[in-house]
Amino acid sequence: MSQLSVGDKAPAFTLPRNGGENVALKDYRGKWLVLYFYPKDSTPGCTKQAIAFSENQSRFRRAGAEILGVSKDSVKRHENFIAKQELKIPLASDESGEMLEKYGVWVLKKLYGREYMGIERRTFLIDPKGVIREIWPKVKVANHAEAVLDALKALK
Q1: What are 131's strand-pairing partners?
Q2: HEC string for 110-144
Q3: Which of 15, 46, 82, 132 is catalytic?
């Protein structure tokens, strides 16, 4: 597991996404990217987070940024989640966990005394040259999309 820091080059990736296409870091060259990792489609916190980013997508685009969510869920699960919640943002599938490892979000978690590996909810703001400009570790969902938008505007 790598530990990325502000100022690091964002690790390259290519993943399948909803809509039957692949998405890669290089697709966002010249744009800001809000790259957010979340544990699981259709769970309460993940649903609230996806809806918040989706509802603010036009504001992010006006600020020159695109949004991409990533979890281990399959593309089919993503498509069901997007349809059910009427999401406007793309979701990529990292079933192998390779990208999750590169970004350091596949971590040991604890719940009710049980330890297990899972995705830490974390967001990266990546600039048009592919450099990480901000990291939000262990994200709390409430007001997170607004905080990311505020940081984006302050950095531009």
Answers
A1: 9
A2: EECCEEEEEECCEEEEECCCCEEEEEECCCCCCCH
A3: 46
Binned at pLDDT 50, 70 and 90, residue 1 comes out as very low
Which regions of 72-121 does DSSP assign to beta strands (E)?
A: 91-93, 106-111, 114-119
Superfamily grouping for domain 14-155? Glutaredoxin (3.40.30.10)
- Cβ atoms of 120 and 142 closer than 8 Å: no
Residues 37, 119 contacting (CB under 8 angstroms): yes
How does strand 32-37 pair with strand 14-16?
Answer: unpaired
Give the C-alpha separation, 77 to 57, whole Å: 21
pTM above 0.85, yes or no: yes
Based on the residue annotation, tell me whether 103 is a catalytic residue of this protein: no
100-124 pLDDT, tens digit per residue, is 999 999 999 998 999 999 999 999 9
Percent of the chain at pLDDT > 70 equals 99
Query: Domain residue spans in the chain?
Result: 14-155
